[in-house]
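Researcher: Structure for this, please.
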Amino acid sequence: MMYRHPQTHARHVLDVYARHYNGHRPHQARGQRSGDFEISRITEWHGSFAPVSVQTWVLRGQGRTILVDTGLGNDKPRVHGLLANRDGDFLHRLAAIGVQPEDVDTVVNTHLHTDHVGWNTRLENGEWAPTFPNAQYLMHKADFDYWNPANNIPRKSDFGDPADSRAGFDDSVLPVHRAGQALLWEGDEHSIAAGLSLQLAPGHTPGSTVLKLHSGTDRAFFVGDLIHTPLQFLTPATTPA
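Model: Predicted structure, token format:
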């Protein structure tokens, strides 16, 4: 989720969200600007039971094309039905707003749950390869170490079956690291570009992060799964996690 104005009342946020999804669920939204950056949203999946989406944010500005989280992915062997062996049109939705995989220079994984890293890779000749060949993938080292099966850390699964967590790391994270495209950053903050930085926000996972945009007079925060739905502005104790 992206949250834009720190003084916006929670009820207003919820009302705007409800109106936006009343009667239609757009696959992509384009043209919103925050300072130097144009911000687009690609929705890969939207729940019918609650205002919850699996989505990717696209930031373009300062000569950069940056993706924030990469959703579910295609062809991934999973136990959970929502994730398993999908055949979606995510890349076509990116192309519809003028972005090809080769255009992306940075991928931000706010955390390494399987529904945030799926399009990190795609199948090519039976092997998992980075979807965005020219991109540096940013992930916090604390999350990489925590989800890495080689470290044998007892952990809670993100979708109820530990097999999915391991598979997500093996097919969507490890191939990027092996290709030399992963930057495992450490510490509390990492600068990406002028006015754009990542801040460590552990809790949902040990390496969960928030992307902060400060451009001109505009501010925006891309919070990953720290908030799943605007309902949590009204009732912060309510969480699906």
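Researcher: Any notable elements?
Model: Confidence is low (pLDDT under 50) at residues 3-25. The helical segments are 10-21, 90-96, 141-147, 162-172, 174-178, 231-234.
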